[in-house]
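MODEL INPUT / OUTPUT PAIR
PAIR INDEX: 1
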Amino acid sequence: MHGFFSMMDSREVRDALHVPDDYGLSEAFKDMAAWLGQWELRGTGHWALEEKNSGRFVGRAGLHQPERHDWPGVEVGWALHPDFWRHGYATEAGAAAVSYGFEQLGAGKLFSCILAENHRSQAVAKRLGFEFMEERILEFFPKLPHQIWKLNRD
């Protein structure tokens, strides 16, 4: 729990994800409970990522399928603590999520919704084989546009 909050509370993650200033331990707990609930209800969610050697919390990654009318479909996503950026963990975890989405869920296509200003995550999406599809405003976050990236099963 505290590793997750530490990641979400880091200045870099706050800036990249536009985490509100009042985000605290209570909100982190609710987010973790929501991921667990999504696993139970849909078979999608994010995994907690740990560094193999140390067991330290690295971040979260996996599949996301929220109940939003303008959401494109099953999303592959990730967020890592800045201490673990530039080590290939996002790409490794994203590849595991892609595999799970196609092999376990049987999805025909997967998406990644990335803020247009988030060049690091766009680079990860490209490494995973995603292709840029479109840029648009999503209802849950009307302040800035998201880029929608798509990966077909075939």
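PAIR INDEX: 2
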Amino acid sequence: MLEGEFELDVAVDGTEAIARLESDTPYDLVLTDLMMPGHSGLDVLARARRLPHRGGLPVVMLTAKGQDADRERAGSLGVDDFITKPFSPKKLLVRIRELLAD
């Protein structure tokens, strides 16, 4: 769904996502799952917020776990949106466009 709309850089796990964020590669937005091998989406979000060149990067977290504790932790780390699966692909696309327009 996103491939035709955006240029994507896909990491296979949280460890790879963090490594890419630590690089100088420019990114406009991070779309991450909460549950991933290596490092969780919360780990990815926390690392992005600590990196000076990524502090303002929009982060959208997807999850099948819609627990309040996860939402609160993501919120305290500065997530831009927290979307619980299943979700409407069209609504996700609209939210991504909104964040990129800011």
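PAIR 2 NOTE: The chain is about 40% helix and 15% strand.
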